[in-house]
Amino acid sequence: MLIAAAVCPHPPLLVPEVAQGAAGELDTVRAACDRAVAGLLEAGADRIVVVGAGTATGWHGPEAGGDLTAYGVGVRTGGVPTVLPLSLTLGRWLAERAGATPDAYAEIAGDAGPQECREMGRRLAAQAPRVAALVMGDGSARRDTTSPGYLDERARRYDTEVADALARADTRALAGLAPEPARELLVAGRPAWQVLAEAARGAGLRGELLAHEAPYGVGYFVASWSR
User: Is the preceding omega at residue 81 within 30 degrees of 0, hence cis?
Assistant: First the structure.
């Protein structure tokens, strides 16, 4: 059963070595992530699982590693092979930053439909009697004219609705996110949030939104769900 969750974004610039001189621009988000992960670890779970979108749906063990060499730095997390996608690499980095080693990594395909997300959510919740999930996902990359995908007028409203759902631990709202608008708005987190929605269904968790910012024209959310 899922007893706690932390929701964090996964921009490479979250890592100070990648951001370098711009590291301060994400200080608030980074601090909120640290707070959310610390709360996750305090929940006393039997098993900690990191959830994030990637190229294919599957599971990775505790030895799985990732790296940020594609972003010009030699930052590595975990062991070999380096199979973790960016979302899970940043999740492992956040966990290790807090002094923890996750027990497993759940990779959900970026184009996974709601049913596939539900199936992974059920498997996630069944991992142990007390499961904690670190859920990685960005909002729309079309928030303004500086965004990677340029401005889409729907993006701000979409992200506000996601932020509200995370603040309320509203599993129904997250489960109802349609894949097509998320694809059009370049929302990376939709599959992972839907995995969380299913895993948390009926668990009685309460939500707290710790941050909602868009410093680079991309929506970043940090939330903590607990009993």
Answer: yes
Unique residue bearing structure tokens 């069944």:
126
Confidence of residue 21 (pLDDT cuts 50, 70, 90): confident
34-53 tens-digit pLDDT: 999 999 999 999 999 999 99
For 68-77, the CB contacts below 8 A with 24+ separation are 68/12, 68/15, 68/17, 68/18, 71/12, 71/18, 72/18, 73/15, 73/17, 73/18, 75/15, 75/17, 75/18
Classify residue 85 by its DSSP letter.
-
The residue written with tokens 């890592």 in the block is: 15
Domain of residue 155 covers 2-226
Contact 92, 15 (CB under 8 A): no
**From CA 10, how far away is CA 216, in angstroms rounded?**
13
Give dist(CA 167, CA 121) in Å, integer. Answer: 19
**Strand 2-8 and strand 131-136: pairing?**
parallel
| pLDDT single digits (tens) 60-116 | 999 999 999 988 888 889 877 789 999 999 999 999 999 999 999 999 999 999 999
- CATH number for position 145: 3.40.830.10
Q: How many domains does the chain fold into?
A: 1
User: Rounded distance, CA 87 to CA 107, Å?
Assistant: 9
